[in-house]
Structures are given as structure tokens and as C-alpha cells.
Amino acid sequence: MDLGNADSWGAAIYFWIFPFVIGDALFPPLPSEMIVITGGALSAAGSINGFLVVLLAALSSWIGDVLVFQLFKRRLSHVLDRWRWGRHFHATVHAAIAKAGRSSTYGAIIGVRFIPGGRLATTAAAGIANVSTRGFSLCAALGGLLWASWSVALGYFTGSATGLPFWASSLIGVGVGMVIGAVVGVVVTRRRGNNSPVAAVASDPDEELDF
Q: Smallest Cα–Cα separation from 43: which of 203, 183, 158, 176?
């Protein structure tokens, strides 16, 4: 298999989307964005269907968000502490919320996912704050669709504009996405300052993440 050849990847990229994008909801370092952007670059090369990549990525994003949301909404996160990876997950949640803010507004659920670590932070915060399941699901679906469309578009337009091999277009798209995400993160952080997040928090203001 020639990994540098777009035709060699073919439909295999479709099967990578679900585990990476769903897993990213629990473990942000997973390169889900790279997978989706690569899908966009492959669609520019004519190897796969870009619209199907968007749909699969959006659905995977929604499933992952709902899983994490329900985990914290139902106060089941303590179950994870039985295992080392679960304790590591809790530490990751703390770090994500410290970086992106404990924001649970509907706008944050949709938009903060574009900031590194923002998806996990807002999803966990929404569960802790007991946000409406229906409202969260709708916002997560919209946010996932916007994120998937944006990521595929990065890969597609980079591939179309540069004419480079799909893997090079993917790397460029990831770089552009990281820069934009970092800029947005800085802007959001400065607007919030060092105060508590602008959104609603859990009904018990003293509640912690470790249940």
C-alpha cells in the first residue's frame, strides 16, 4: 500500500472517522481534526466524497459529545476513577476547563469547540450545569456540523488551491486550522479575563468535577 497515493487510502478514511472523532471527545490529543481535514484533501483529489466525510464527522462529533455530556450530567464520572486512564481523563477535563473556561451557554457549546480543548471543556461543563438534554443535543449537532464542514473545507480548498499531494494539503490545512484556533482562543481568553466564565455553572457553585 502506497500511503502517499490518494487512491491507496480510498474509502478507508471513512472508517477512521468514527473512532478518532468520538474518541477526541474523551481524549483531545487524538488527531481527529487531521483525519477530517485529510478527508477534505482526499475529496479534492477525487478519491472520496467530501459530503459523506462531513456527515460522518458531524455524526461522530455529536455521538462523542452526548456521551461525555451524559457522563457528567448523570454524575457517573466517578466510575472512571477506578482505572488509571479514567483518572487521567479527569485530569484532562480539569486542564481543558482551565484553558477554555467552564462555559455552558448554548453559544459556547456550538463555538468553543473550535478552540483546542474547548469541545471537552464545554461538554463537561454543560453536563455539570445540568443543561437541558434537548438543548445540548441540538447545539452539539449544529456545532459538530459546522466543525466538520470547516475541517473538510480546509482540506478541500487547500488541496484545490495548491495542487500538492493530499498529505501535504492535509498538513497545511491542519496548520491553518491550528493558527486560527489559537487566535480565537487568545481572543476569547482575553475577553473573559481571569474571572469566572460568563456562562452558567452547576446549580451548586461549590461542585467539583470529581463526583
A: 158
Cβ neighbour number for residue 85 with a 10 Å cutoff:
9
Please write the tens of the pLDDT for every residue from 85-135.
Answer: 666 666 666 665 655 555 557 777 887 777 767 788 788 888 878 888 999
pLDDT in tens, 4-24: 555 556 678 888 899 999 988
> Are 177 and 33 a contacting pair, CB within 8 Å?
yes
Q: Give the pLDDT mean for 155-180.
A: 79
- Of the candidates 176, 144, 184, 141, the residue with the CA atom closest to the CA atom of residue 158: 176
pLDDT of residue 194 exceeding 80: no
Q: The pTM is what?
A: 0.76
50-73 helix and 32-44 helix, angle to the nearest 10 degrees: 170
Report the alpha-carbon distance of residue 168 to residue 5 in Å, rounded.
12
Cell of 125: 461543563
pLDDT of residue 211 exceeding 80: no
CB atoms within 10 A of CB 204: 9
Q: Which three cell numbers stand for residue 162?
A: 495548491
Is residue 90 classed exposed, middle or buried when 0-12, 13-18 and 19+ CB atoms within 10 A define those classes?
middle
DSSP of 7-60, one letter per residue?
A: HHHTTHHHHHHHHHHHHHHH-TTS-HHHHHHHHHHHHHTTSS-HHHHHHHHHHH
